[in-house]
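Q: Please design a sequence for this.
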C-alpha cells in the first residue's frame, strides 16, 4: 500500500542527499587538522607566522590547541548531524527544532572561525579551515529550508 504525502518526492531526495553530504563534510572537517598535522603541518606554519619568536614547544602547544578546537567542534557537529538525520528520517516532532538549533550552532561556529582574531593572529583559525567549517552549513541550509517548507507525512 502506497503512502500519500503532501510533498513532492524530489524534496525528500534533495533533503536526504544534503543531510548525508553535510554529515560527510563535517566529518572531513573534523579529520582535516589531524591529517594536516600528520602530513604538511600548515597549522604550525600559521602559528609561526603569527609568533616568529616562539620556540618549537610553544608553536606545537598553540597548534595543538587550534587542532583540538577544530576536531572538537567537528565531532560535536557530526553528532548534531546524526541526531538531525535520525529525527528527520523517523519523522519526530522535535526534528525541526533540532535542525534549526544545529544550523544556528554550526553557522555561529563557522562564522566565528572565519572572523575571530587573536593577539597577533589576523584570524586564529586559518582561512582554509574556516571555509572547511562553513561548507557543511550550505548543506545544513538546504536541509533547514526543506524541513520548514514541507510538512511531515501523517503517520498511519
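A: Design:
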Amino acid at each position: 500500500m502506497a503512502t500519500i504525502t503532501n510533498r513532492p518526492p524530489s524534496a525528500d531526495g534533495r533533503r536526504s542527499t544534503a543531510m548525508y553530504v553535510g554529515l560527510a563534510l563535517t566529518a572531513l572537517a573534523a579529520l582535516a587538522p589531524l591529517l594536516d598535522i600528520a602530513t604538511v603541518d600548515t597549522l604550525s606554519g600559521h602559528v609561526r607566522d603569527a609568533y616568529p619568536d616562539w620556540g618549537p614547544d610553544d608553536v606545537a602547544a598553540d597548534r595543538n590547541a587550534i587542532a583540538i578546537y577544530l576536531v572538537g567542534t567537528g565531532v560535536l557537529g557530526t553528532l548534531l548531524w546524526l541526531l538531525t538525520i535520525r529525527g528527520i528520517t523517523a519523522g519526530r516532532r522535535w526534528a525541526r527544532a533540532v535542525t534549526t538549533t544545529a544550523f544556528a550552532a554550526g553557522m555561529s561556529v563557522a562564522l566565528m572561525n572565519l572572523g575571530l582574531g587573536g593577539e597577533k593572529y589576523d584570524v586564529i583559525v586559518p582561512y582554509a579551515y574556516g571555509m572547511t567549517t562553513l561548507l557543511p552549513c550550505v548543506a545544513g541550509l538546504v536541509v533547514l529550508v526543506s524541513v520548514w517548507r514541507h510538512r511531515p507525512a501523517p503517520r498511519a
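Q: Thanks. Anything notable?
A: The radius of gyration is 19 Å. DSSP finds five helices and no strands in the chain.
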